[in-house]
Specification:
Elements: E1 2-5, E2 10-14, E3 25-28, E4 34-36, H1 42-52, E5 62-64, H2 70-73, E6 83-87, H3 90-97, H4 100-111, H5 113-122, H6 124-136, E7 149-151, E8 154-159, E9 162-168, E10 178-182, E11 187-195, H7 207-220, E12 224-229, H8 235-257, H9 262-268, H10 283-294, H11 305-319
Parallel strand pairs: 4-5, 5-6, 6-7, 11-12
Antiparallel strand pairs: 1-2, 2-3, 3-4, 8-9, 9-10, 10-11
Helix pairs in contact: 4-6, 5-6, 6-11, 7-8, 8-9, 8-10, 9-10, 9-11
Bound molecules: zinc ion (ZN).
Zinc ion is lined by residues 23, 69, 71-72, 192, 228-229.
Length: 325
């Protein structure tokens, strides 16, 4: 984990490994401070607080959650008394997709030899993902703390004269996707609508929405983008993400027209220039999302998470690459 100053008053905490759950956080160090996303577990949240505390005068008054995923909200409880801001969908969605008890049970099952063996036989991919997470994370003690200041399309903050725009862009990667734009400083905190140098994992939403959101970021023309995952970038990060998604959708369409199931398609589609990105086998999720659209299924059709992690595992094995999430 490292802290970087990205403009006069904006900072980022970045997790260099850039694997699943390695989410970035942001800080706008004005008017008592605004923290953007709170890390995946309490140890990482504390480390983030420690890093930001080198530049802020006191614990921040506000927290923004860019969306409902666990890796962006599970440190919320450490910001006692802070106003937590998020899209109106977040409280219900967080209860659904960021239930800490489910993750705690999985981690204990993976850590325990006998339960791990049973689970391994059923879901090798889920176990592999769990083992990877155990290297860096401990989800014990997490309690879900929900946003209380909710908005629909847009929410604006005025921080000592600096405007901050929270713009709802979902659902493209998740239901509650929000980007945070600080026009005066040329900064966008993109949350998970932008994965940088790692393969995007999209859950709820459509390709079209995601393209529109990336176009919006390009149009805002920030000097710096803090992605939800991966290193800082400029608008080339948004351009490359869009090119990746377009490539994936086009390749998926060819396989769909050939009658291949999505898992077989994911094994067949070449990584192309994106093979250097972290966890390239996660492309399965993007293929599956494209297939859902080709089949006219609703964008919020639920995922079978164990089966999804197993499919990524199978793609990595078929491609002869390291299993990585
Ligand atoms: Zn994330």
């Amino acid at each position: 984990m490292e802290m970087k100053q990205v403009s006069d008053n904006c900072f980022a905490v970045l997790i260099e490994k850039n694997r699943v759950c390695d989410a970035n956080s942001g800080l706008i160090n004005l008017a008592g401070g605004v923290v953007i996303d709170t890390q995946s577990d309490l140890a990482h949240a504390r480390q983030m607080i420690e890093m930001f505390s080198k530049v802020w005068p006191a614990m921040p008054k506000r927290v923004v959650n860019t969306h409902e995923d666990a890796d962006h909200v599970w440190g919320n409880q450490l910001f006692e008394g802070a106003e937590i801001i998020g899209h109106r969908s977040l409280p219900e969605r967080m209860k659904h997709v960021a239930n800490p008890e489910e993750m705690q049970k999985l981690m204990h099952d993976v850590a325990n030899e006998s339960t791990r063996q049973k689970l391994q036989a059923l879901h090798p991919g889920l176990v592999a993902a769990g083992q990877q997470l155990l290297e860096d994370y401990n989800f014990d003690g997490i309690k879900l703390v929900l946003p209380t200041t909710l908005f629909d399309a847009r929410y604006e903050l005025n921080l000592d004269g600096t405007e901050v725009h929270l713009i709802y862009v979902g659902p493209c990667h998740q239901v509650g996707d929000t980007i945070i734009h600080v026009p005066k400083e040329g900064v966008v905190f993109a949350g998970d609508v932008l994965f940088r140098l790692c393969t995007p994992m999209g859950w709820v939403g459509t390709y079209e929405k995601w393209f529109h959101c990336l176009d919006l970021i390009i149009q805002l023309n920030p000097k710096v983008i803090v992605p939800g995952h991966g290193p800082l970038c400029g608008i080339e990060g948004a351009t490359e993400m869009k090119a990746y998604l377009q490539y994936l959708r086009d390749e998926s369409k060819k396989c769909f027209n050939d009658g291949l199931p999505s898992l077989e398609a994911a094994k067949r589609i070449e990584f192309g220039p994106y093979g250097e990105w972290r966890a390239p086998a996660r492309l399965y999720m993007n293929v599956e999302r494209a297939y859902r659209e080709f089949r006219s299924e609703p964008p919020d059709a639920p995922w079978n998470t164990p089966a999804t992690f197993d499919a990524i595992y199978e793609v990595a094995k078929a491609k002869g690459i390291e299993v990585e999430y």
